[in-house]
Input
Amino acid sequence: MEKPVETTKPEGALAPKQRIEGKVVKTSLQGALIDINHPLPAFLHISQVVNTANPDAPVKSLEDVLKVGDSVVVWVKRVMKDHTELTMYEPLALEWKDIKPEMTLKGKVVRLESFGAFVELGAERPGLVHVSELSHNYVKLPSEIVKVGDEVDVKVLEVDRKKKQIKLSMKALLEEPEVAEEEKKPSRKGKGAKKEEVEEEPKEVIPDPTYMEIALRQAMEMAERRKPAVRNKKVRSYDSEADDIFDRTMRNKINNKD
Output
């Protein structure tokens, strides 16, 4: 979070983001020359002018906002060899290039969601402290730990400049709670007992039958079904022969008697 900066009137070197109070000495269609008590001329481009009466309204005409003799608060945007570029937009306290993992920052909680808390750091966007990064203990809702307006210390975990996301942690700056002695001691129940490893018997994997095996099984089944019919036919043939022999024997006995 940005610390308040006192307004200064420079006489020596200028630095980017330096806050200065100046006076409008000349206006044009492109912008205004500002006296900041420095040897180099300072120029405020119209794109960097803010309508203090209505900051959200675009500035179409410089004369509607600034006039010669007006006092203005500006910031150094860039220092060139022959002039200094100014802006009326307050610069960010933290640029994306300045935010790096492992940094420790101070910020203010500006929004709470079920998944975490957003912390204003002075960057383009607030950073997020996920609910799991608020405390070493289990936290169901961020409101259990922080509320909007709280100033907190956070540690930068990750910075994604493309997605413009900053992942933060509060618990990374907190000491881990001590584990109770009872939790440290191993359980006496079953002490010394060896765990028997039960090896599971490998399950037999039966592969799917091939077309040749299927055809062979079908042929064997058909052969089995035919066997009773063949046996019955043979039995009937034997019975018929036995009857013929019996008839001939009886006829021969009768003829011999006669």
Observations:
- The beta strands are 19-27, 31-35, 42-45, 71-79, 84-87, 104-113, 116-120, 127-130, 151-160, 165-169.
- Confidence is low (pLDDT under 50) at residues 1-7.
- The first strand starts at residue 19 and ends at 27.
